Amino acid sequence: MTELVDSDVSAINRRLSEALSVMGVGCLTPLPGVDLWQLDHTALRILGLAATEMRTMFDRLVANVHAEDFAMVRQALFSRSGHVDLEFRVSGDLATPWRTVRARGGEGETGVIVLEDVTMKLLADRERAQMIERISEASQLEALGTLAGGIAHEINNPAQFIGDNLNFIRDAIGGLSDVALAADRAAKGESTWECVAEAVAKIPVALLAKESPVATQQAIDGVERIGNIVQAIREFCYPSSKSPTPLSLNHLIEIAMTVTRNKWKYAAQMELNLDEALPVIMAIEGEIYQILVNLIINSIYAISEKKQSGLGRISIFTRLEGPMVRLTVADNGIGIPSDRLARIFDMFYTTKPTGEGTGQGLAITQAIVLRHGGRISVESQLGEGASFHILLPIDGPPSEAKAMQGDI
Q1: Rounded CA gap, 408 and 405, in Å?
Q2: CB 68 within 8 A of CB 92
Q3: Orientation angle between helical segments 119-187 and 193-201, nearest 10 degrees
Q4: According to a count of CB atoms within 10 Å of the terminal CB, is the N or C end of the chain lower?
Q5: In the chain, how many domains are there?
């Protein structure tokens, strides 16, 4: 076996350094037995050090690190033990006063630590999150506009039978008032009891005794139904906060069912299997509503496209899985072709015909789930339906997601 000579090793190291430089990655290596670190040119640039400091002491190495991150960097690097994986800030320029550097690697005393300037990546991720946020808000308004006609119809139905029942009660009260007035006059000696009997004979006493309580209760039920719809609309349109708050996922499902009822009741039966012991979760109320409405509307479309006789089926499940809650929305609609499954979460990609879908709903849904620190997956068989599975952490989004939400 041919041994590598020093010149070969130097050439390999040079090529490796050039390759890493092209990738924008720098190397930082602790030298054994001394308080010195070896840096390549990219690492020097990333840390804002001079070209003459390719070998430098630890204190110079971290000279440009943000004061708030200094203790964290010192603990991770100075001990020279264990795997390093952290992000910290170093001083930058006027455009970017503080740049973000990611450090990884560093097993043992001589372990190489890889440095990468991730400032632009973080800015791009933040801009993408802001774009999705704007699209999400527009999508929510679009969904509300789509649902508005159905919501109006849902309110109109109980309003109509409330009016019919109140008309019946008004007519009944008119006849009973005549009886009461006749009885009052007879009691005062101003009329006879025969007149009372005549007034009673003019009204359908048996019918009133039977139907009046029913009409009254129906009117009360109608008012409660309208109240529930209005409350659901209020919660859907004006969520309590744009920050994570304690929420009942089951309650949000019931609200989403109410505001979409006029869409699904003509296409499908809604089946709920909700875990009553499900704990509250930390989540952003309006965004969870948007997930639910997006998935319900998608299921309605899939069932309508199947053109089956009779109503289809939409099933919603919740259950606890360790530190997460699982939400499943399934339907027995047309399903998704296997060659399209990999792309259904891409922004602006849609399986619907031109003019019938924007390709935003599932992309926004995935972005919301990921921003909450969760996961989303789909199972589908063409002609049999689709099931969307979402896992959300009980404790809410991870800290970096919360920080990003605060910037949006």
Answers
A1: 5
A2: no
A3: 140
A4: N
A5: 3
User: Are 228 and 252 within one domain?
Assistant: no
Mean pLDDT of 91-103: 85
Q: What domain range includes position 71?
A: 6-117
What is the per-residue pLDDT across 222-244, written as a single tens digit (0 to 9) for each?
Answer: 788 777 777 766 666 655 566 78
Same domain, yes or no: 224 and 246: no
Shared domain check, 82 and 45: yes
Decide: residue 90, CB within 10 A, 0-12 exposed, 13-18 middle, 19+ buried.
buried
Q: What is the mean pLDDT of residues 400-404?
A: 44
Residue 401: pLDDT band with limits 50, 70, 90: very low
Mean pLDDT of 144-172: 74
Q: What is the mean pLDDT of the chain?
A: 78
Kind plus residue range of the DSSP H or E element containing 313: strand 312-321
Residues 169, 22 share a domain: no
Rg (CA), the chain: 34
Per-residue HEC secondary structure of 87-137 comes to: EEEEECCCCCCEEEEEEEECCCCCCCEEEEECHHHHHHHHHHHHHHHHHHH
Please state the φ and ψ torsions of residue 310, each to the nearest 5 degrees.
Answer: 80, 180
